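Operator note (shift B, R.M.): manual run for SCP2 domain-containing protein requested after the automated queue skipped it. Running by hand, logging everything below so the morning shift can see what happened. Input copied straight from the record, untouched. If output looks odd, do not overwrite the archive copy; leave it for review.
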Amino acid sequence: MSMTVGELFSALSTRFNTEAAAGITRTLQWKITDEDPGVWAFEIVDGQGRLIPGGVPEPDTTFITTSETWVAIAEGRQDAMRAFMTGKLKVKGDMMLAMKVPKLFETGV
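Run finished. Output pasted below as returned.
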């Protein structure tokens, strides 16, 4: 049974890799479109992370995708880079930060 988008974002903090995030102070944001829409941000301040439901005005990197694609990435059924290359996942902002996301969270994201 798949988790909902909201449940996956709630679980994000538990999968956050503080060692990989040491020295990073950035904000990631996900904009989910389609039947389960919403915006979630994840703020990282020198290795400590917190989820901000509803998002922030100026994130460093924003991922835009459907709930179906995001759930598949988060559950490890879809490769994030492949989703990006095929246009299922769009990225705005800091691409270098976007590339680090798989290391910052223990599965897919």
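Quick read of the result: The longest strand covers residues 25-33. The helical segments are 5-12, 67-74, 80-85, 95-104.
Leaving this for review. - R.M.
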